[in-house]
Write a structure and sequence with these properties.
- The protein is 18% helix and 33% strand.
- By secondary structure, it is of the alpha+beta class.
- The protein folds into two domains: 44 residues; 62 residues, CPE0013-like (CPE0013-like fold).
- It has a five-stranded mixed β-sheet. Strands 1-2-3 form a three-stranded antiparallel β-sheet, covered by helices on one side.
- The chain is elongated.
- The mean pLDDT is 96.
- It binds iron/sulfur cluster.
């Protein structure tokens, strides 16, 4: 099996090639530093992303408040989380760093507010 990837760990954006050997282990080439191999192996076995979004609020000044996950979330949980966030309307006040959703899908990852909203 062979896959092409672009490392997003830094702006260089190395083009990586991942191929399986006879033992079905991934061999990574094209990386200019060790982080590329770590990125590729994570992407191939457990792809994750930090999720950013906005949620509706009761605020007149800030009708949508930015939120994000506090760690990278497994990709399979992203669409259900976005559906949940877009269906919400939060009561103000909220503080930056405050948890909106705790332990998404039992992942130990939380959704937090990215800013204060007091009125
Ligand atoms: S492999 Fe290293 S140098 Fe290349 S994009 Fe990834 S982090 Fe940057």
């Amino acid at each position: 099996m062979k896959k092409e990837l672009i490392c997003i760990s830094c702006p260089t954006g190395c083009h990586l090639t991942a191929e399986t050997d006879a033992n079905r282990e991934w061999l990574i080439t094209g990386n200019r530093c060790p982080r590329g191999k770590v990125y590729a192996l994570n992407e191939l076995t457990d792809p994750r992303r930090v999720v950013t979004a906005t949620v509706a609020s009761t605020s007149e000044l800030m009708p949508r408040i930015p939120v994000r996950t506090d760690k990278a979330l497994p990709k399979r949980f992203i669409a259900p989380l976005l559906n949940r966030l877009y269906a919400m309307k939060v009561q103000i006040p909220v503080k930056s760093g405050e948890i909106l959703i705790e332990n998404v899908e039992n992942s130990q990852i939380n959704v937090i507010f990215c800013c204060d909203c007091i009125k």
